[in-house]
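User: Predict structure, ligand adenosine-5'-triphosphate.
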Amino acid sequence: MEKESSALVIQNICKTFGEVTAVKDFGLEVKDGEFVSLLGPSGCGKTTLLRIIAGFEIPDSGEVLLDGENIIGLQPFKRPMNMVFQRYALFPHMTVYENIAFSQFLKKRPKEEIEQKVKKMLELVQLEGFEPRKPNQLSGGQCQRIALARALINEPRVLLLDEPLGALDLKIRKQMQIELKKIQEKLKITFIYVTHDQEEALVMSDRIVLMKLGEIIQVDTPKRIYNHPNSRFAATFIGESNIFDGEVVKVKADHLVVGVDGLQLLAHRNIDAKVGDKIVLAIRLEKVSRVTGASKKEYDNQFPGKIEDVVFFGALVKYYVRISENITLIAEENITEEESDQDAEENNIGTTVTLGFSRKDVNVLIE
Ligand SMILES: Nc1ncnc2c1ncn2[C@@H]1O[C@H](COP(=O)(O)OP(=O)(O)OP(=O)(O)O)[C@@H](O)[C@H]1O
Ligand SMILES: [Mg+2]
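Assistant: Predicted complex:
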């Protein structure tokens, strides 16, 4: 099978629970060896979709094709897939060895083969020598590695992961994100990974499927989805953006002039728009800076205003600046060592600055 072929094709999936539409006309093609994340707020249908792919849930309509074959009628245990859950779901009375080997015992594989495989799996998740331990002698992160090993020993065609790092603390979670990604790259197994953590999706995925209320909002690489969100929802759910409602005032060859609360902003023309159209502008916080003498020429959008708040985030600082009656523009800058030592954040409040950004960094959205 070629690398670029689709391992999994999901077509027109719908699933309702009584009055609730959990998944609505969902379609997606996942390539062989791809790491795809389903990202969206709580209740948007991520787990339901994963359960449909795994066969634990039957959709009202639609198809799931694995290597070209419709598997909707296939029992979960007959699908060459495994699932890893948020809660570790290890068998508490069994050792690590028995947990990982469990599916191989059921398949009645020879003892030596099982030993070899378990050893290989423990190396993969970096827990060599942990065979005799019981789950209650493991940390949360270690439990999840064992859960991963237990799933991977089956060499699944597709691995489904439902917020597998959700119960871990931030530091371990970040470490596991990198590790999990490395394991996936090494084994080249197709991963479908559910998360509601946008940063996690950005760090790990080849592609992100952004969902809302059971529907796909945008499917793109992390970079594309971050730099070119297609909607107000995408611009705010992934990363942070200044969002303004505006009206097109002029249409120029390569840019638009947009009226926003009595101000005129320039935005590059990435959509067909005519004078009078209501549009939404999204500008990433880090694309907005305080204008200094040196950077004066860089920005075709410049607005003076009073600093309302300065918030210090360690390596970053955010400036909240009132640029019109109803609009606060937020700039995010890397903080220099001197600034950090000066305690600049408190002294700045109430003073006037000019914030600037380029029109190429203004994303024009329809909604
Ligand atoms: N068995 C069920 N019976 C009734 N409603 C259900 C059932 N399973 C899911 N739902 C509903 O379907 C919707 C989608 O649920 P789902 O668990 O797929 O969301 P999710 O995106 O995984 O959310 P979370 O991030 O909180 O895990 C929700 O409104 C949920 O209440
Ligand atoms: Mg869920």
